[in-house]
Amino acid sequence: MAGRAIRAEQVSATRTLILTVAERLFAERGVHAVSNRQVSEAAGQGNNTAVGYHFGTKADLVRAIVRRHADRIEEIRVRLLHGTRGSTDVRDWVSCLVRPMAEHLAALGSPTWFARFCAQVMTDPAMRAIVIEESLTSPSLREVLDGLDRCLPHLPPEIRAERGDMTRELILHMPAERERALADGMPTSRATWHDAATGLIDAIVGLWLAPVTRDG
């Protein structure tokens, strides 16, 4: 029994190491630029097929990395929702969109790679589907989007869709840019992840409340 327990601990430690290394390499180089073999080697695994053994395909590995973070982000969003339900303030709902990732990254300490990992993965159609399936279809996120939608009944559907796309791009890429700057030792416009989230929320609220100009 003791031998099995030790073996299970070793397997768990190896899986965690592979996930950490893969997340970093994917974040820094891009998903397609990194092979499973390179991940195995960087993780110090003598067997170059370690990734396949523990996770399967590269898509399976990406899914495992997303799942590693998604539960904690979901917990934060659910907590924020408790104080937001019933609100008619756009800012309250935008905060529920922005703060979960920022709070999660702050809790991880430095350095982090998950924001850049997400930005890299979302540029690939096949991998993008994994992120959407695993993290962007949660019940709490759907509730947040519905709450935001109810605050903006005056917006035409096409404008609503356009600004939704803009919001997703900002939420995806602004944390990634801050994370990259921190990793490179470059200055950032805000001192903390909390403050960075506040700035992003300000911008997105302004985006949703901006006037709609009709050409012609």
Report what the structure shows:
There is one protein chain. This protein is mainly α and 216 residues long. The protein has helices spanning 2-29, 36-42, 50-54, 58-82, 90-108, 114-121, 125-135, 139-150, 157-183, 193-209. Helix 4 (58-82) runs parallel beside helix 7 (125-135) and helix 5 packs antiparallel against helix 10. The radius of gyration is 20 Å and the shape is elongated.
Q: What secondary-structure arrangement, pairings included, does this model have?
A:
Elements: H1 2-29, H2 36-42, H3 50-54, H4 58-82, H5 90-108, H6 114-121, H7 125-135, H8 139-150, H9 157-183, H10 193-209
Helix pairs in contact: 1-2, 1-4, 1-6, 4-5, 4-7, 5-8, 5-10, 6-9, 9-10
Annotation keywords:
single chain, 216 residues, mainly alpha, 10 helices
Tell me the series of helices and strands, N- to C-terminal.
HHHHHHHHHH
Kindly name the structural category.
Answer: mainly alpha
- Biggest sheet character: none
- With helices defined by DSSP (H or I, 4 residues minimum), what is the helix count? 10
From the N-terminal CA to the C-terminal CA, the straight-line distance is 77 Å
Number of strands: 0
As residue ranges, the low-confidence spans are none
Mean pLDDT: 92
Radius of gyration computed on alpha carbons: 20 Å
How large is the share of residues in beta strands? under 5%
Globally, the shape reads: elongated
The share of residues in helices is over 70%
